[in-house]
TrEMBL record, chain A:
Keyword terms of this UniProt record: Cytoplasm, Exosome
UniProt-annotated location(s): Nucleus, Nucleolus
UniProt name for this protein: Exosome complex component CSL4
GO BP: RNA processing
Lineage, uppermost ranks: Eukaryota, Viridiplantae, Streptophyta, Embryophyta, Tracheophyta
Domain of life from the UniProt record: Eukaryota
CDD domains reported for this sequence: S1_CSL4
Automatic annotation (TrEMBL), chain B:
Cell compartments where the protein resides: Nucleus
GO CC term (a single one): nucleolus
Organism annotation: Acorus calamus (Sweet flag)
Name of this protein: Exoribonuclease phosphorolytic domain-containing protein
A Pfam family it matches: RNase_PH
GO BP: any one term: rRNA catabolic process
PANTHER family xref list: EXOSOME COMPLEX COMPONENT, EXOSOME COMPLEX COMPONENT RRP46
Keywords: Exosome, Nucleus, rRNA processing
Lineage: Eukaryota, Viridiplantae, Streptophyta, Embryophyta, Tracheophyta
InterPro entries: ExoRNase_PH_dom1 (IPR001247), ExoRNase_PH_dom2_sf (IPR036345), PNPase/RNase_PH_dom_sf (IPR027408), Ribosomal_Su5_D2-typ_SF (IPR020568), RNase_PH (IPR050080)
Boundaries of every Exoribonuclease phosphorolytic domain copy: 13-141
Family: Belongs to the RNase PH family.
GO molecular function: RNA binding
UniProtKB/TrEMBL annotation, chain C:
Gene3D superfamilies in the cross-refs: GHMP Kinase, N-terminal domain (3.30.230.70)
Domain of life: Eukaryota
UniProt similarity note: Belongs to the RNase PH family.
GO biological process, any: poly(A)-dependent snoRNA 3'-end processing
GO MF, any single term: RNA binding
Lineage: Eukaryota, Viridiplantae, Streptophyta, Embryophyta, Tracheophyta
Subcellular location: Cytoplasm; Nucleus
Entry keyword set: Cytoplasm, Exosome, Nucleus, RNA-binding, rRNA processing
InterPro entries in the record: ExoRNase_PH_dom1, ExoRNase_PH_dom2, ExoRNase_PH_dom2_sf, PNPase/RNase_PH_dom_sf, Ribosomal_Su5_D2-typ_SF, RNase_PH
Protein name per its UniProtKB record: Uncharacterized protein
Pfam families: RNase_PH, RNase_PH_C
Exoribonuclease phosphorolytic domain location: 36-160, 164-225
Keyword Repeat included in the entry's annotation: no
GO cellular component: cytoplasmic exosome (RNase complex); nuclear exosome (RNase complex); nucleolus
UniProtKB/TrEMBL annotation, chain D:
Major place of residence: cytoplasm
Family listed: Belongs to the RNase PH family.
Pfam families registered for this protein in UniProt: RNase_PH, RNase_PH_C
GO biological process: exonucleolytic trimming to generate mature 3'-end of 5.8S rRNA from tricistronic rRNA transcript (SSU-rRNA, 5.8S rRNA, LSU-rRNA); nuclear mRNA surveillance; nuclear polyadenylation-dependent rRNA catabolic process; rRNA catabolic process; TRAMP-dependent tRNA surveillance pathway; U1 snRNA 3'-end processing; U4 snRNA 3'-end processing; U5 snRNA 3'-end processing
InterPro entries, per the entry: ExoRNase_PH_dom1, ExoRNase_PH_dom2, ExoRNase_PH_dom2_sf, Exosome_comp_Rrp42_subfam, PNPase/RNase_PH_dom_sf, Ribosomal_Su5_D2-typ_SF, Rrp43
Annotated GO MF terms: mRNA 3'-UTR AU-rich region binding
Domain Exoribonuclease phosphorolytic: 47-181, 219-279
Record keywords: Cytoplasm, Exosome, Nucleus, RNA-binding, rRNA processing
Cellular component per GO, a single term: cytoplasmic exosome (RNase complex)
Name of the featured protein: Ribosomal RNA-processing protein 43
Residues forming coiled coils: none
Organism: Acorus calamus
Length: 197, 252, 249, 303
């Protein structure tokens, strides 16, 4: 029961969407190796996307859209927003709160190692002058990391601290890529500041 | 209506207070707080043990926070309520929660983020006063001191302050435990803290009640207890001033 | 209130050994035919605190399943390139006619894990864990198959990628008769039981348990009965999922 | 705290509202509070939609399913027979237990029970005993020999704030739905239920012919409020409870007696006026809950 292009039907996990000889399995679909058929793996609407004009494989792609996907999970390459929980000499740990623009349901633990804080002079990085507990940091996921945490990096201009509180409790204003200032007291604190576009 | 109290006190009279600090040597801070004194009322009828409330509180910390409930921006406080005998059950858990939340509201938690401080308390209510003194003894930074007052409501509807154990066992329609901030002293008279034009010591930090009473009775308890809290507050301040931490190394 | 020290007993009279089951033709207490399942009531999304959830009611068997995650695996666990599945089943104190201390059922939890694991695309959530927690509100017989089907529905509701949904049905053998979807009372008198969990669309079995004495012929008969019932149950589960999905849009 | 973060942080443009709410919960809430409206659209003093259905558990003697918004509680009562204590030979006993199974919240995991569950059990026990809801003498079957041990088990099926309030309502509703089984005394001296065909022609005389329901004296109802600055938010959700930590719970009975005023610490002080406001919110809530309960009971009689 191949589904025609443009038609959208509701499917549930395990329903046959077509054959891998005519279609490519997109998001929410998979190819079963025993019979070469394409099955759905999610609940949602099934949609057929015609092949891009220049692509090598001229088969249309079948994918599941409009489904209730599970909560956001960090993946290597995703940009995340995290809250710094602990600063140590060689690394900081941070709770990942958002993946891309989406909030996660439950936090994931990430760490930023000393060599991943900035791109240049990486051996001179002082972690205590880069982050403070409570800082909100924009970072990119380097890898799935180890059993405990995802490895994060802030080694780009647009990555680093995006929001921080001063000792006086006010939200500080970035004044350079290494400094932020408290609007109440005028005190300057050091951070690895993210460049605001 | 006046009620006769078994130990001869007037309804508004508190039992004599006593507080000594630094009583445990291995703890970072400790205090022994008692309400009621074995020497002052030698009435034959009642066993003195029953009229006294003695609490021992010990503070350990701040320690590097590895415990659960660790918070990157604030210090954590944990309370362990040790029952006199047996295992800790539902009531101990409830007391731990009440005490923890009360202490959290008077501590300056932003000073030592990522740390845990344990408060270990043994025996009965009024533990708040003892814990508070123990925290001071440990040199823990506090915003205020807290003062707790117990308040009983007799069957006839009159309010009795600071009921003793023996009195609690007699017929009380209801009783209330209220916790206030200590009354403020300031060098500048206009510097006294106010919230919305009300002095802070009028507000309750914690309220726990047992038994049914009318709303008016509760408000009456609140007023009377508030008045009494000033006395305890003064006592606490005097007691703390007279015994500065004996071991300067303890001060943070 | 000294509840701990008092010993209490339930006033319900001890069950008498019912003899009717020994006859060749007896009528099931709910009037069903031997090869007829109880009507199934299924609903997804009951627990908002979870990533996905489902409620299943088959006669007096009532079950809630919540799915959490994919979320951080517990600290003590080793790194894993693929996702983990963690299952737990507990019973309420009032789930049976005699009050019990509500407790975890370790054996069922392990069986639920085995029944579901093969159907989940674990590669789709590396390093993280999906928790499947079930609470049996009332135990009215065939608890495990109802939990398995309900859990599969909750996983689909949570948007966890699966090869197929899992539907599960059990058959009890009493004397010469094969009884499908047995009640607790029928289960109490069983000579043997047979449980199958399968992926109906892929025609694959994820779990099969057989206890008691069975002849080969009976096993074949039971297998056919179950597979057929699983595929029908699968259709009901799909229509439940589609109903929820269509109201979302 | 992060009060000043209400100022534009420059991050809002790039993230969804949910993400902002997750990162800066307090500023997010304070913005809503300025308009006297909560993120779920409720005015500050309004409780969530409340529903009650009686008799949800067929294996129990009395049961009730309660929903306060998304918070869901299932209470069931099972009666067992006990030997009364020597001190009170004419009294039965109550055993109240509040459970938070792992299905109800992401913070509860098997083997890692919720810290709050035993505290709520204790509070429920206190409220039900202090209010005098149940006369324990009514639980007596045969003086000195047998009485009812009443097990009340309340399960939280979905935890979204105001757990105590919903659990108390579920418990009192289960009590009002309770049907005491008819029992007789067996030869061995055990109390056994008489049911079905034996009812018309019981072999033994019934012990409790005319006591099928308990007389509920004064019924306790409660309302929890979150205090934040000068705001009082009634019937908070789990998110509201976690962001604004000062909670105040008032329990009143049907005759407006104060059963409990519970405020376990918190950074906001409760002044006399705050206390009075919370009590008057509770009075209104008691009326709502009474109405819901009596409607559910009269629906049951029609069935």
């Amino acid at each position: 029961m191949a589904i025609e292009t443009g038609e959208e039907t509701l499917v549930t996990p395990g329903e046959v969407l077509g054959d891998s000889s005519d279609l490519i399995a997109g998001r929410g679909a998979y190819v079963a190796h025993h019979n070469g058929k394409i099955y759905s793996s999610l609940t949602g609407r099934c949609s057929i996307v015609p092949p891009l004009p220049g692509s090598s494989d001229q088969k249309p792609k079948v994918e599941i859209v409009g489904h209730k996907a599970h909560g956001a999970v960090p993946e290597p390459g995703s940009v995340v927003i995290a809250r710094v929980t602990k600063v140590m000499a060689k690394m900081v740990s941070a709770d990942i709160m958002c993946v891309g623009p989406k909030a996660v349901k439950e936090k994931f633990t990430g760490i930023i190692r000393q060599q991943d804080v900035r791109a240049s002079e990486i051996d001179k990085v002082d972690m205590y002058l880069s982050f403070h507990p409570g800082d909100i940091v924009r970072a990119v996921v380097l890898s799935l990391g180890d059993a405990r945490a995802y490895y994060l990096s802030t080694a780009k201009n647009e990555l680093g601290v995006v929001s921080a509180q001063s000792i006086a409790g006010a939200t500080m204003v970035p004044i350079s890529w290494t400094e932020m200032q408290c609007p109440l007291t005028g005190q300057i604190e050091q951070r690895k500041v993210a460049k605001v576009n | 209506m006046e009620v006769d109290r078994i130990d001869g006190r007037t309804p508004n009279q508190l039992r004599p207070l006593a507080c000594s600090r630094n009583v445990l040597h291995r703890a970072h801070g400790s205090a022994r707080w008692s309400q009621g004194d074995s020497t002052s009322y030698k009435t034959a009828i009642v066993n003195t043990k029953e009229r006294n409330t003695i609490i021992l509180a010990a503070v350990y910390g701040p320690k590097a926070g590895t415990r659960k409930g660790e918070n990157p921006e604030k210090a954590s406080i944990e309370v362990v309520w040790k029952p006199r005998t047996g295992q800790s059950g539902k009531s101990e858990k409830e007391c731990e929660l009440i005490l923890r939340r009360t202490l959290q509201s008077i501590c300056l938690l932003t000073v030592h983020p990522n740390t845990t401080t344990s408060v270990i308390v043994q025996l009965l209510p009024c533990a708040i006063n003892a814990s508070c003194a123990a925290l001071v003894d440990a040199g823990f930074p506090l915003k205020h001191l807290a003062v707790a007052v117990g308040c009983g409501l007799s069957e006839g509807g009159s309010v009795i302050l600071d009921p003793s154990k023996a009195e609690e066992e007699l017929k009380f329609q209801a009783y209330t435990h209220l916790v206030f901030l200590n009354s403020s002293l300031s060098v500048l008279p206009e510097g006294l803290p106010h919230v919305e034009g009300k002095p802070v010591e009028d507000g309750i930090i914690t309220s726990v009640t047992h038994g049914a009473m009318s709303v008016n009775d509760y408000l009456c308890c609140m007023e009377r207890a508030q008045a009494a809290s000033a006395k305890i507050s003064e006592f606490l301040r005097r007691s703390l001033q007279s015994q500065l931490p004996s071991d300067p190394a303890k001060a943070l | 209130m000294s509840t701990a020290a008092t010993t209490t007993y339930s006033p319900s009279p001890a069950k008498k050994q019912q003899t009717i089951f020994k006859d060749l033709d007896w009528v099931r207490s709910d009037g069903r035919g031997f090869q007829q399942c109880r009507p199934a009531f299924l609903r997804t999304g009951a627990t908002s605190a979870a990533s996905g959830s489902a409620y299943a009611e088959f006669g007096n068997t009532k079950v809630i399943v919540s799915v959490f995650g994919p979320r951080e695996s517990k600290k003590a666990m080793m790194y894993s390139d693929i996702g983990r599945l963690n299952c737990n089943i507990s019973y309420t104190t009032f789930s049976t006619s005699i009050r019990v201390q509500g407790s975890d059922n370790k054996e069922f939890s392990a069986m639920l894990h085995k029944a579901l694991e093969g159907a989940i695309i674990l590669e789709s959530f590396p390093k993280t864990t999906v928790d499947v927690f079930a609470l049996v509100l009332e135990s009215g017989g065939s608890d495990l198959p109802v939990i398995i089907s309900c859990a599969s529905l909750a996983l689909a509701d949570a948007g966890i990628m699966m090869y197929d949904i899992v539907s599960s049905v059990s058959v009890t053998c009493i004397g010469k008769n094969l009884i499908i979807d047995p009640t607790s009372e029928e289960e109490d008198h069983r000579d043997g039981s047979f449980l199958i969990s399968c992926m109906p669309s892929r025609n694959e079995v994820t779990q099969l348990t057989l206890t008691g004495e069975w002849t080969t012929a009976k096993v074949h008969e039971a297998m056919e009965l179950c597979i057929d019932a699983c595929s029908k149950l699968g259709d009901i589960m799909r229509s439940c999922l589609k109903e929820t999905a269509s109201t979302l849009q | 705290m992060a009060e000043k973060a209400t100022e534009k942080t420059g991050m809002e443009g790039e993230m969804e509202v949910d993400a902002y709410r997750r990162l800066f919960p307090l500023p997010f809430y304070e913005r809503h509070l300025l308009d006297s409206l909560r993120p779920d659209g409720r005015p500050l003093s309004r409780s969530r939609d409340t529903s009650l259905s009686l008799g949800a558990v067929s294996s129990a003697d009395g049961s009730a399913l309660v929903k306060f918004g998304d918070t869901t509680m299932l209470a069931a009562i099972k009666l067992e027979v006990m030997t009364p204590s020597k001190e009170s030979p004419d009294e039965g006993c109550l055993g109240i237990e509040f459970h938070m199974p792992p299905i109800c919240s992401p913070i509860v995991r098997p083997g890692k029970p919720a810290e709050i569950a035993p505290v709520i059990s204790k509070q429920l026990e206190d409220a039900i005993l202090s209010s005098g809801l149940i006369n324990l003498k009514e639980l007596s079957l045969i003086s000195g020999k047998a009485a009812w041990m009443t097990y009340v088990d309340i399960y939280c099926l979905n935890a979204d704030g105001s757990l105590f309030d919903a659990a108390l309502f579920a418990a009192v509703a289960a009590f009002s739905h309770l049907q005491i089984p008819l029992v007789s005394l067996s030869e061995g001296g055990r109390v056994i239920t008489v049911s079905g065909e034996n009812l018309d022609n019981p072999a033994k005389e019934l012990v409790n012919k005319d006591k099928r329901n308990l007389t509920l004296h004064s019924i306790p109802f409660s309302l929890t409020c979150v205090l934040h600055k000068n705001y009082i938010l009634a019937d908070p959700t789990a998110e509201e409870e976690s962001i604004m930590e000062t909670l105040l719970t008032v329990v009143l009975d049907s005759s407006s007696q104060l059963i409990s005023l519970y405020k376990p610490g918190g950074s906001v002080l409760a002044f006399k006026t705050t206390v009075q406001d919370c009590i008057s919110h509770t009075r209104k809530r008691v009326k709502e809950l009474q109405k819901i309960l009596s409607e559910a009971l009269s629906d049951m009689e029609i069935d």
